[in-house]
């Protein structure tokens, strides 16, 4: 009854979305702030008879809005039902095990090996530097062990550490131009340097973004990718061989509204960065080690505790964080930046518990 393909899959396990009681959720990097209020005004006046009709399979108006925002043309933009869906298309379209293994960092987004499993692509985890920053020399690999592509988040997850633009430029200059380099910029808006400006000079660069974090729209499911028109065409071929209508009408319209509300965006980003700075210093004050984060979360450890124990004790107190049962980062927890009140509540608990 089940395919052999299915039986060999190990799915990704998303962060808990519990229903048993109400928790302070600092475990899935959602925003603590509601999205742009313009969305509410739009929904109140929306003509629901439009929902009879299929959405634009090209999401043209949304892609034009994005193109304008990033100084590109719409043939450089692809949109999808969350960036996870786009990543799945990326694996299908660009990574071919015949040309070698896919390279990604030792500690990184745990969905990447799941896609490799799904599409039967072997991969190599590249060791990071002792301070957890990405090692560009190692990421490029060597000629004796060819690779079919590179993927990494910038800033990296779950460490929060950003790779500076000059290192990205160096990587792109040294890596074969006929292999795709994917930068997952899910957290770039919180202080990293985007590689969007390198698209025009590197046809093999694809940048993947999401509206889930910095736009407070995790419930909407909207992601986008930016790259040369050849890469974008390949993503459309992949999508249109799978589902023509991955992005609904309401999602396309709301995405446009959210992307255009620059004042809302600037205010929320500034607040999260401010709270992150305050919270990191306060945790250090309590003798935690906190990695320097450019994301909307911090990766931290209290010497003498394991990540699992910190997670369990905080959960008893009604606060959810995330730990990873992975050699080398077992002592850390990843803590999403909430409001200042959220972080003060957490700091009270960490102070008394650990
Ligand atoms: C959250 C996250 C995503 C997924 O974003 P969605 O658009 O919600 O699917 C992708 N990559 C990284 C590194 C993330 O942290």
From TrEMBL:
Required cofactor(s): pyridoxal 5'-phosphate
Domain Aminotransferase class I/classII large: residue ranges: 23-348
EC code: 2.6.1.9
Start and end residues of each stretch annotated as Disordered: 1-20
GO terms (BP aspect): L-histidine biosynthetic process
UniProt GO MF annotations: histidinol-phosphate transaminase activity; pyridoxal phosphate binding
Pathway of action: Amino-acid biosynthesis; L-histidine biosynthesis; L-histidine from 5-phospho-alpha-D-ribose 1-diphosphate: step 7/9
Keyword list, A-Z: Amino-acid biosynthesis, Aminotransferase, Histidine biosynthesis, Pyridoxal phosphate, Transferase
Record's catalysed reaction(s): L-histidinol phosphate + 2-oxoglutarate = 3-(imidazol-4-yl)-2-oxopropyl phosphate + L-glutamate
Residues bearing the modification N6-(pyridoxal phosphate)lysine: 213
HAMAP family reported in the protein's UniProt record: HisC_aminotrans_2
Protein family according to the UniProt entry: Belongs to the class-II pyridoxal-phosphate-dependent aminotransferase family. Histidinol-phosphate aminotransferase subfamily.
Subunit and partners: Homodimer.
Name under which the protein is recorded: Histidinol-phosphate aminotransferase
Organism (species): Syntrophus gentianae
């Amino acid at each position: 009854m089940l395919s052999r393909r299915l039986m060999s899959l190990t799915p990704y396990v998303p962060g808990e979305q519990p229903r048993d009681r109400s928790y302070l959720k600092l475990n899935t990097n959602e925003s603590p702030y509601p999205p742009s209020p313009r969305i509410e005004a739009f929904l109140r006046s929306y003509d629901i008879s439009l929902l009879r009709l299929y959405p634009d399979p090209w999401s043209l108006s949304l892609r034009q809005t994005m193109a304008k925002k990033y100084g590109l043309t719409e043939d450089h933009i692809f949109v999808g039902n969350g960036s996870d869906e786009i990543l799945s298309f990326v694996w299908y379209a660009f990574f071919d095990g015949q040309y070698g293994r896919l390279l990604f960092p030792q500690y990184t987004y745990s969905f990447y090996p799941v896609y490799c499993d799904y599409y039967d692509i072997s991969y190599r985890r590249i060791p990071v530097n002792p301070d957890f920053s990405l090692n560009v020399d190692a990421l490029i690999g060597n000629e004796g062990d060819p690779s079919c592509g590179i993927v990494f988040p910038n800033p990296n997850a779950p460490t929060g550490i950003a790779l500076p633009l000059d290192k990205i430029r160096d990587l792109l200059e040294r890596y074969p131009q006929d292999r795709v380099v994917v930068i997952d910029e899910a957290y770039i808006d919180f202080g990293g340097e985007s590689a969007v400006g390198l698209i025009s000079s590197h046809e093999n660069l694809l940048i993947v973004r999401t509206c889930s974090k910095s736009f407070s729209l995790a419930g909407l499911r909207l992601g986008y990718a930016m790259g040369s028109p050849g890469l974008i065409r390949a993503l459309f071929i992949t999508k249109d061989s799978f589902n023509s209508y991955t992005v609904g009408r309401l999602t396309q319209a709301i995405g446009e509204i959210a992307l255009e509300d620059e004042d809302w965006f600037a205010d929320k980003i500034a607040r999260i960065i401010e709270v992150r700075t305050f919270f990191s210093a306060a945790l250090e004050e309590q003798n935690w080690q906190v990695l320097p984060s450019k994301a909307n979360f911090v990766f931290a450890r209290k010497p003498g505790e394991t990540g699992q124990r910190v997670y369990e004790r905080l959960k008893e107190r009604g606060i959810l964080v995330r730990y990873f049962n992975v050699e080398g980062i077992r002592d850390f927890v990843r803590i999403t930046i909430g409001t200042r009140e959220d972080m003060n509540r957490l700091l009270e608990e960490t102070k008394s518990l650990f």
